[in-house]
Amino acid sequence: MTMNQTQVKVGGRLYFLDWVRVLAFALLIFYHTGMMFVDWSFHIESGHNSLFLKSIMMLTSTWRLDVLFVVSGVAISVMVSKMSLLYFTWQRVLKLLVPLLFAVAVVVAPQSYFEALQKGVFDGTFWQFWTEHYFTFSWDDRMNAPFPTYNHLWYVLYLFWYTLLLLPLIAYINCDSGVVFLARCERFLSKGARILWLPLLGYFSFLTVFGNDEITHAFYNDWYGHCVYLFAVVLGLLFVRMPAIWLSFERNRYLSLIVGLTGYLILLADLHLPGNRPVGLPELSWAFVESIVKWSWLSLVIGFARHHLNFTNKGLQYCSGIVYPFFILHQTVIIVIGFFVIGWGLSGVSEYWIIALGTFAICALLTEVLIKPVNGLRLMFGLKWKKRKSPVSQQVVAVTTSQ
User: Fold this and answer.
1) How far apart are the first and last CA of the chain?
2) How many CB atoms lie within 10 A of CB 391?
3) What is the pTM (predicted TM-score) of this model?
4) In a domain, 21, yes or no
Protein backbone atom coordinates (compact mmCIF):
# COMPACT_ATOMS: atom_id res chain seq x y z
CA MET A 1 0.00 0.00 0.00
CA THR A 2 1.46 3.33 -0.98
CA MET A 3 1.41 6.27 1.37
CA ASN A 4 -0.88 9.13 0.46
CA GLN A 5 0.25 12.72 0.51
CA THR A 6 -1.23 13.56 3.91
CA GLN A 7 0.76 10.75 5.53
CA VAL A 8 4.15 11.79 4.21
CA LYS A 9 5.78 13.83 6.95
CA VAL A 10 8.68 16.18 6.31
CA GLY A 11 8.40 18.28 9.48
CA GLY A 12 7.74 22.00 9.82
CA ARG A 13 9.32 24.85 7.94
CA LEU A 14 13.12 24.74 8.21
CA TYR A 15 13.79 28.46 8.44
CA PHE A 16 17.51 27.96 8.98
CA LEU A 17 17.75 26.39 5.52
CA ASP A 18 15.89 29.37 4.07
CA TRP A 19 18.60 31.56 5.58
CA VAL A 20 21.32 29.29 4.19
CA ARG A 21 19.77 29.47 0.72
CA VAL A 22 19.45 33.25 0.74
CA LEU A 23 22.96 33.82 2.10
CA ALA A 24 24.51 31.27 -0.27
CA PHE A 25 22.97 32.98 -3.29
CA ALA A 26 24.10 36.37 -1.97
CA LEU A 27 27.60 34.94 -1.65
CA LEU A 28 27.52 34.15 -5.37
CA ILE A 29 27.49 37.86 -6.17
CA PHE A 30 30.63 38.47 -4.14
CA TYR A 31 32.25 35.32 -5.55
CA HIS A 32 31.53 36.04 -9.20
CA THR A 33 32.64 39.65 -8.74
CA GLY A 34 35.87 38.29 -7.29
CA MET A 35 36.42 36.18 -10.40
CA MET A 36 37.43 39.38 -12.21
CA PHE A 37 40.15 40.08 -9.65
CA VAL A 38 42.02 36.76 -9.55
CA ASP A 39 43.92 34.89 -12.25
CA TRP A 40 41.25 32.23 -12.70
CA SER A 41 39.53 32.14 -16.09
CA PHE A 42 36.43 34.33 -16.30
CA HIS A 43 34.43 36.18 -18.94
CA ILE A 44 35.73 39.64 -17.97
CA GLU A 45 39.16 40.26 -16.47
CA SER A 46 40.24 43.34 -14.52
CA GLY A 47 44.00 42.82 -14.73
CA HIS A 48 44.24 42.48 -10.93
CA ASN A 49 45.28 39.29 -9.15
CA SER A 50 44.45 39.45 -5.44
CA LEU A 51 46.00 36.63 -3.41
CA PHE A 52 43.88 37.67 -0.41
CA LEU A 53 40.67 37.39 -2.42
CA LYS A 54 41.77 34.10 -3.90
CA SER A 55 42.38 32.73 -0.39
CA ILE A 56 38.77 33.43 0.56
CA MET A 57 37.32 32.25 -2.72
CA MET A 58 39.31 29.02 -2.54
CA LEU A 59 37.47 28.16 0.68
CA THR A 60 33.95 29.04 -0.47
CA SER A 61 34.42 27.35 -3.86
CA THR A 62 34.71 23.98 -2.13
CA TRP A 63 31.22 24.02 -0.57
CA ARG A 64 29.01 26.93 -1.74
CA LEU A 65 27.46 25.01 -4.64
CA ASP A 66 27.08 21.77 -2.71
CA VAL A 67 25.08 23.53 0.00
CA LEU A 68 22.75 24.94 -2.67
CA PHE A 69 22.18 21.47 -4.09
CA VAL A 70 21.49 20.10 -0.60
CA VAL A 71 18.90 22.84 -0.02
CA SER A 72 17.44 22.15 -3.47
CA GLY A 73 17.07 18.48 -2.51
CA VAL A 74 15.20 19.55 0.62
CA ALA A 75 12.85 21.74 -1.45
CA ILE A 76 12.18 18.88 -3.87
CA SER A 77 11.35 16.51 -1.02
CA VAL A 78 8.95 18.99 0.54
CA MET A 79 7.21 19.65 -2.79
CA VAL A 80 6.63 15.98 -3.59
CA SER A 81 5.06 15.47 -0.17
CA LYS A 82 2.29 17.89 -1.20
CA MET A 83 1.52 16.95 -4.81
CA SER A 84 1.51 14.11 -7.31
CA LEU A 85 4.70 13.24 -9.18
CA LEU A 86 3.09 14.27 -12.47
CA TYR A 87 2.14 17.71 -11.21
CA PHE A 88 5.53 18.05 -9.51
CA THR A 89 7.31 17.32 -12.80
CA TRP A 90 5.20 19.95 -14.58
CA GLN A 91 6.10 22.47 -11.86
CA ARG A 92 9.79 21.69 -12.37
CA VAL A 93 9.41 22.43 -16.07
CA LEU A 94 7.83 25.80 -15.29
CA LYS A 95 10.26 26.66 -12.49
CA LEU A 96 13.51 25.43 -14.04
CA LEU A 97 13.34 24.69 -17.76
CA VAL A 98 11.30 27.73 -18.86
CA PRO A 99 13.51 30.28 -17.01
CA LEU A 100 16.62 28.46 -18.25
CA LEU A 101 15.64 28.66 -21.92
CA PHE A 102 14.61 32.31 -21.58
CA ALA A 103 17.84 33.18 -19.78
CA VAL A 104 20.03 31.44 -22.38
CA ALA A 105 18.29 33.34 -25.17
CA VAL A 106 18.06 36.76 -23.51
CA VAL A 107 19.65 37.23 -20.08
CA VAL A 108 22.99 35.51 -20.66
CA ALA A 109 23.56 36.98 -24.13
CA PRO A 110 25.08 40.26 -22.81
CA GLN A 111 27.68 38.22 -20.93
CA SER A 112 28.91 36.73 -24.19
CA TYR A 113 28.71 40.10 -25.94
CA PHE A 114 30.85 42.03 -23.45
CA GLU A 115 33.29 39.14 -23.17
CA ALA A 116 33.61 39.15 -26.96
CA LEU A 117 34.20 42.91 -26.92
CA GLN A 118 36.93 42.74 -24.29
CA LYS A 119 38.71 39.80 -25.93
CA GLY A 120 38.55 41.26 -29.44
CA VAL A 121 36.24 38.60 -30.81
CA PHE A 122 33.56 41.09 -31.90
CA ASP A 123 33.34 44.88 -32.20
CA GLY A 124 29.79 45.66 -33.31
CA THR A 125 26.60 46.57 -31.44
CA PHE A 126 24.77 44.20 -29.12
CA TRP A 127 21.88 43.95 -31.56
CA GLN A 128 24.27 42.88 -34.32
CA PHE A 129 25.89 40.35 -32.00
CA TRP A 130 22.57 38.95 -30.77
CA THR A 131 20.93 38.63 -34.19
CA GLU A 132 23.96 37.58 -36.25
CA HIS A 133 26.44 35.77 -33.96
CA TYR A 134 24.94 34.60 -30.69
CA PHE A 135 22.75 31.83 -32.10
CA THR A 136 25.36 30.38 -34.48
CA PHE A 137 26.16 27.41 -32.18
CA SER A 138 29.87 27.99 -32.59
CA TRP A 139 32.80 28.44 -30.22
CA ASP A 140 35.70 30.85 -30.61
CA ASP A 141 38.81 29.58 -28.78
CA ARG A 142 39.24 32.98 -27.13
CA MET A 143 35.86 32.70 -25.41
CA ASN A 144 35.07 30.83 -22.20
CA ALA A 145 31.86 29.36 -23.60
CA PRO A 146 30.14 28.75 -26.96
CA PHE A 147 27.38 30.77 -28.65
CA PRO A 148 24.75 30.50 -27.19
CA THR A 149 25.53 29.41 -23.63
CA TYR A 150 24.04 29.00 -20.18
CA ASN A 151 27.14 30.19 -18.22
CA HIS A 152 26.21 30.45 -14.50
CA LEU A 153 22.82 28.85 -15.15
CA TRP A 154 24.46 25.44 -15.45
CA TYR A 155 23.11 24.99 -11.90
CA VAL A 156 19.52 25.20 -13.17
CA LEU A 157 20.22 22.80 -16.04
CA TYR A 158 21.82 20.25 -13.72
CA LEU A 159 19.04 20.53 -11.14
CA PHE A 160 16.34 20.01 -13.76
CA TRP A 161 17.84 16.77 -15.02
CA TYR A 162 18.66 15.55 -11.52
CA THR A 163 15.00 16.05 -10.63
CA LEU A 164 13.89 13.80 -13.50
CA LEU A 165 16.55 11.24 -12.71
CA LEU A 166 15.47 11.04 -9.08
CA LEU A 167 11.76 10.49 -9.72
CA PRO A 168 12.00 6.72 -8.90
CA LEU A 169 13.75 7.51 -5.60
CA ILE A 170 11.15 10.16 -4.84
CA ALA A 171 8.37 7.65 -5.46
CA TYR A 172 10.09 5.17 -3.15
CA ILE A 173 10.49 7.52 -0.18
CA ASN A 174 6.83 8.46 -0.54
CA CYS A 175 5.69 4.86 0.03
CA ASP A 176 5.43 2.87 3.27
CA SER A 177 8.57 0.80 2.76
CA GLY A 178 10.57 3.93 1.94
CA VAL A 179 9.41 5.65 5.11
CA VAL A 180 10.42 2.61 7.20
CA PHE A 181 13.84 2.52 5.51
CA LEU A 182 14.44 6.22 6.14
CA ALA A 183 13.51 5.82 9.79
CA ARG A 184 16.23 3.17 10.15
CA CYS A 185 18.75 5.39 8.37
CA GLU A 186 17.81 8.28 10.65
CA ARG A 187 18.47 6.26 13.80
CA PHE A 188 21.86 5.15 12.46
CA LEU A 189 23.11 8.43 10.97
CA SER A 190 22.07 10.66 13.86
CA LYS A 191 24.26 8.88 16.42
CA GLY A 192 27.53 10.49 17.50
CA ALA A 193 29.49 12.16 14.71
CA ARG A 194 28.44 9.77 11.94
CA ILE A 195 26.90 12.61 9.99
CA LEU A 196 30.38 14.11 9.65
CA TRP A 197 32.35 11.13 8.42
CA LEU A 198 29.90 8.80 6.66
CA PRO A 199 29.07 11.19 3.74
CA LEU A 200 32.82 11.61 3.24
CA LEU A 201 32.95 7.98 2.13
CA GLY A 202 30.83 9.01 -0.84
CA TYR A 203 33.15 11.86 -1.79
CA PHE A 204 36.22 9.65 -1.36
CA SER A 205 34.63 6.98 -3.56
CA PHE A 206 34.08 9.48 -6.37
CA LEU A 207 37.70 10.62 -6.17
CA THR A 208 38.95 7.04 -6.22
CA VAL A 209 36.86 6.16 -9.27
CA PHE A 210 37.72 9.25 -11.34
CA GLY A 211 41.25 9.85 -10.06
CA ASN A 212 40.70 13.63 -9.94
CA ASP A 213 38.20 16.27 -8.83
CA GLU A 214 37.85 18.15 -12.13
CA ILE A 215 34.49 19.87 -12.59
CA THR A 216 33.81 21.36 -16.04
CA HIS A 217 30.16 22.57 -15.77
CA ALA A 218 29.80 21.22 -19.32
CA PHE A 219 26.80 18.94 -18.97
CA TYR A 220 27.90 16.27 -21.43
CA ASN A 221 31.29 15.42 -19.85
CA ASP A 222 31.13 16.62 -16.24
CA TRP A 223 31.01 13.16 -14.70
CA TYR A 224 32.74 13.90 -11.40
CA GLY A 225 30.68 17.07 -11.03
CA HIS A 226 27.47 15.13 -11.65
CA CYS A 227 28.39 12.58 -8.97
CA VAL A 228 29.18 15.25 -6.38
CA TYR A 229 26.17 17.48 -7.06
CA LEU A 230 23.67 14.64 -7.50
CA PHE A 231 24.95 13.20 -4.20
CA ALA A 232 24.25 16.54 -2.52
CA VAL A 233 20.70 16.65 -3.91
CA VAL A 234 20.04 13.11 -2.70
CA LEU A 235 21.30 14.00 0.78
CA GLY A 236 18.93 16.96 0.98
CA LEU A 237 16.10 14.87 -0.43
CA LEU A 238 16.54 12.27 2.31
CA PHE A 239 17.68 14.39 5.26
CA VAL A 240 14.49 16.44 5.31
CA ARG A 241 12.62 13.19 6.01
CA MET A 242 14.97 12.59 8.99
CA PRO A 243 14.48 15.47 11.48
CA ALA A 244 17.10 14.09 13.88
CA ILE A 245 19.78 14.65 11.24
CA TRP A 246 19.50 18.43 11.58
CA LEU A 247 19.99 18.10 15.35
CA SER A 248 23.07 15.99 14.68
CA PHE A 249 24.52 18.75 12.49
CA GLU A 250 23.83 21.20 15.30
CA ARG A 251 25.42 19.02 18.01
CA ASN A 252 28.56 18.49 15.94
CA ARG A 253 28.95 22.05 14.71
CA TYR A 254 32.10 22.80 16.72
CA LEU A 255 33.73 19.55 15.66
CA SER A 256 32.88 20.48 12.06
CA LEU A 257 34.47 23.88 12.66
CA ILE A 258 37.70 22.35 13.98
CA VAL A 259 37.98 19.92 11.07
CA GLY A 260 37.00 22.59 8.55
CA LEU A 261 39.53 25.15 9.78
CA THR A 262 42.30 22.54 9.89
CA GLY A 263 41.64 21.51 6.31
CA TYR A 264 41.40 25.12 5.19
CA LEU A 265 44.77 25.94 6.78
CA ILE A 266 46.31 23.07 4.80
CA LEU A 267 44.87 24.44 1.57
CA LEU A 268 46.08 27.94 2.48
CA ALA A 269 49.59 26.65 3.04
CA ASP A 270 49.50 24.98 -0.36
CA LEU A 271 48.32 28.23 -1.99
CA HIS A 272 50.81 30.56 -0.28
CA LEU A 273 53.78 28.20 -0.26
CA PRO A 274 53.79 26.71 -3.77
CA GLY A 275 56.38 24.05 -4.41
CA ASN A 276 56.64 23.16 -0.72
CA ARG A 277 54.32 20.17 -0.65
CA PRO A 278 55.64 17.14 1.24
CA VAL A 279 57.82 14.99 -0.99
CA GLY A 280 56.09 11.94 -2.39
CA LEU A 281 52.55 13.12 -1.59
CA PRO A 282 50.32 12.31 -4.59
CA GLU A 283 48.42 15.15 -6.28
CA LEU A 284 45.16 13.33 -5.56
CA SER A 285 45.80 13.68 -1.82
CA TRP A 286 44.97 17.37 -2.05
CA ALA A 287 41.63 16.50 -3.63
CA PHE A 288 40.86 14.36 -0.58
CA VAL A 289 41.70 17.32 1.66
CA GLU A 290 39.37 19.51 -0.39
CA SER A 291 36.59 16.94 0.05
CA ILE A 292 37.08 17.03 3.82
CA VAL A 293 36.93 20.83 3.71
CA LYS A 294 33.82 20.65 1.50
CA TRP A 295 31.77 18.43 3.80
CA SER A 296 33.01 19.87 7.10
CA TRP A 297 32.18 23.43 6.04
CA LEU A 298 28.84 22.38 4.62
CA SER A 299 28.16 20.64 7.95
CA LEU A 300 29.20 23.61 10.08
CA VAL A 301 27.13 26.00 7.96
CA ILE A 302 24.05 23.83 8.50
CA GLY A 303 24.87 23.22 12.16
CA PHE A 304 25.42 26.86 13.10
CA ALA A 305 22.43 27.96 11.01
CA ARG A 306 20.25 25.40 12.81
CA HIS A 307 21.43 26.80 16.15
CA HIS A 308 21.29 30.54 15.41
CA LEU A 309 19.01 31.11 12.42
CA ASN A 310 15.99 28.89 12.96
CA PHE A 311 13.51 31.77 12.80
CA THR A 312 11.79 33.92 10.22
CA ASN A 313 11.13 37.62 9.78
CA LYS A 314 10.01 39.99 7.05
CA GLY A 315 13.55 40.30 5.71
CA LEU A 316 13.86 36.55 5.17
CA GLN A 317 10.41 36.34 3.62
CA TYR A 318 11.22 39.14 1.18
CA CYS A 319 14.65 37.78 0.23
CA SER A 320 13.30 34.27 -0.23
CA GLY A 321 10.84 35.65 -2.76
CA ILE A 322 13.42 37.43 -4.91
CA VAL A 323 16.44 35.14 -4.65
CA TYR A 324 15.72 33.29 -7.92
CA PRO A 325 15.47 36.43 -10.11
CA PHE A 326 18.62 37.71 -8.39
CA PHE A 327 20.42 34.48 -9.29
CA ILE A 328 19.34 34.60 -12.92
CA LEU A 329 20.32 38.26 -13.30
CA HIS A 330 23.41 38.65 -11.13
CA GLN A 331 26.25 37.45 -13.37
CA THR A 332 25.02 39.41 -16.37
CA VAL A 333 24.81 42.56 -14.24
CA ILE A 334 28.28 41.89 -12.81
CA ILE A 335 29.82 41.55 -16.26
CA VAL A 336 28.08 44.61 -17.71
CA ILE A 337 29.06 46.82 -14.76
CA GLY A 338 32.55 45.32 -14.64
CA PHE A 339 33.20 45.93 -18.33
CA PHE A 340 32.88 49.67 -17.77
CA VAL A 341 34.18 50.03 -14.18
CA ILE A 342 37.52 48.30 -14.78
CA GLY A 343 38.33 50.99 -17.32
CA TRP A 344 38.00 53.85 -14.81
CA GLY A 345 41.52 53.48 -13.46
CA LEU A 346 40.45 52.94 -9.84
CA SER A 347 42.09 50.70 -7.28
CA GLY A 348 41.15 47.03 -7.30
CA VAL A 349 39.38 47.36 -3.95
CA SER A 350 37.24 50.26 -5.20
CA GLU A 351 36.39 48.48 -8.43
CA TYR A 352 35.39 45.32 -6.55
CA TRP A 353 32.99 47.07 -4.18
CA ILE A 354 31.45 49.26 -6.87
CA ILE A 355 30.71 46.17 -8.98
CA ALA A 356 29.44 44.02 -6.10
CA LEU A 357 27.22 46.63 -4.44
CA GLY A 358 26.08 47.96 -7.80
CA THR A 359 25.00 44.43 -8.74
CA PHE A 360 22.82 44.13 -5.64
CA ALA A 361 21.24 47.53 -6.36
CA ILE A 362 20.54 46.93 -10.05
CA CYS A 363 19.22 43.39 -9.49
CA ALA A 364 16.85 44.76 -6.83
CA LEU A 365 15.70 47.55 -9.14
CA LEU A 366 15.10 45.21 -12.10
CA THR A 367 13.26 42.73 -9.89
CA GLU A 368 10.95 45.27 -8.25
CA VAL A 369 10.29 47.58 -11.20
CA LEU A 370 10.42 45.26 -14.20
CA ILE A 371 9.97 41.60 -13.22
CA LYS A 372 7.55 41.41 -10.30
CA PRO A 373 4.82 43.65 -11.81
CA VAL A 374 4.71 41.77 -15.17
CA ASN A 375 3.30 38.25 -15.09
CA GLY A 376 5.04 37.18 -18.27
CA LEU A 377 8.42 38.13 -16.82
CA ARG A 378 7.52 36.60 -13.46
CA LEU A 379 7.17 33.27 -15.24
CA MET A 380 10.45 33.73 -17.09
CA PHE A 381 12.26 34.38 -13.81
CA GLY A 382 10.74 31.51 -11.87
CA LEU A 383 8.15 33.44 -9.87
CA LYS A 384 4.51 32.46 -9.42
CA TRP A 385 1.88 33.95 -11.70
CA LYS A 386 0.28 36.83 -9.80
CA LYS A 387 -3.49 36.70 -9.83
CA ARG A 388 -5.21 40.00 -10.42
CA LYS A 389 -7.94 40.98 -7.97
CA SER A 390 -11.29 41.52 -9.64
CA PRO A 391 -13.00 44.90 -9.17
CA VAL A 392 -15.80 43.15 -7.23
CA SER A 393 -13.40 41.58 -4.72
CA GLN A 394 -11.60 44.90 -4.29
CA GLN A 395 -14.93 46.61 -3.49
CA VAL A 396 -15.75 43.91 -0.92
CA VAL A 397 -12.37 44.43 0.75
CA ALA A 398 -12.94 48.21 0.78
CA VAL A 399 -16.40 47.88 2.35
CA THR A 400 -15.16 45.40 4.93
CA THR A 401 -12.27 47.66 5.83
CA SER A 402 -14.52 50.73 6.19
CA GLN A 403 -16.78 48.84 8.56
Assistant:
1) 52
2) 8
3) 0.91
4) yes
